[in-house]
Amino acid sequence: IFLLVYLILAVTLGFTLMVTEIAIGRKTGLSAVGAFRKLDKRFGFVGYLACIVPFIITPYYCVIGGWVIKYLITFVSGNVSAAAGDDYFTGFITQAGSPVLWFAIFVLLTSIVVIAGVEKGIEKASRILMPVLIILTLGISVFCITRPGAGAGVKYYLLPDFSRFSITTVLAAMGQMFYSMSLAMGIMITYGSYMQKENLLEHSVTQIEIFDTLFAFVAGLMIIPAVIAFNGGDPSQVNSGPGLMFITLPMVFDSMKFGTIIGAVFFLLVLFAALTSSISLMETLVSVLMDKAHMKRKTATIAITASCLIIGMLSCLGYGPWATITIIGMQFLDFFDFISNSVLMPIVALLTCILIGHVVGAKVIADEVKEGAGSFHREKLHRVMVRWVAPVMLAAILASELATKVFHLFTI
User: Fold this and answer.
1) What's the whole-number mean pLDDT along residues 374-394?
2) Farthest-apart Cα atoms in the chain, separation
3) What DSSP assignment string belongs to 167-193?
């Protein structure tokens, strides 16, 4: 049911927000900070809020990227049994030195691509990484769904249980959509600013929708059937977050024939996926410094890399030497994730909808979409969503997340 709700949101709310952000970027030719200000000076602060999101996300995202490199090296070296141990992951993230090393390596890999620029760096890396990523994902998915007992996992994944539908399902799917489609964090505005006028904007967004959602769907086929098969048909082990990727899945790989090879390929795949995302996040921040501080790309990238390394240390050591330090009851990484995903991103998206739907008018976006294309097939959907439906949904997710957190604090 989560998957079904996510698909509906992706083709409605996700489409609306993505078209809006890319059109804003292409129309203004600026990064998020300058783009919002150019549309309406009163909304210039929204651009800064949008840029705070990747500034918060990038450091802790790179910490998790470092964990992926660590596991990739572990599997490549043949230590699958060690990685499948109950305390391996906990023992690793609570150390003082090893997590920092792998975190730094991931940050530097990201920086090298961003320094090279959009065409020589990001575009070239994507042309190599994405096809490899797709091939690896399809290959592992076919392998996983053909394992003995995987049929129960496929059934669990694809057949919706409508009795489990709730507002929590909608809110969770919406939060996942923000991350998966890179919305409300300045990324799409930044990439939109690089987009040529003759490119078909609506067609490009539709392609992103299809491939992003299809890829996520196939990734689910790769993971969920394998985990349920490993647990004898018990879906309770399909937990979320680090527990699934760094604890449950290594156990699955350890139980497989050729599990060491499959596990190494899997973590290589995850590393590629993580790099494409971290590159987008860092590029957004670099573009802001280039626009507002008039820095050269190399200088801006070095500045962002340094800040990422410093701020990321909080999340990197937050489960180890600094584990006793918490913010409103959360470790540093969990707190940064909550502030960015549950607070700032819905606020940025809500204010963007208000700006476009009720201040400058949805026609501004429609005209930009029609530039070079002559038509906007989903214009009516966009207008209704950006003016009425999206603001209500975004206000609901924001209120729900804040109410849940406040309730949790008062019941600790």
Assistant:
1) 94
2) 61
3) HHHHHHHHHHHHHHTT-SSSHHHHHHH
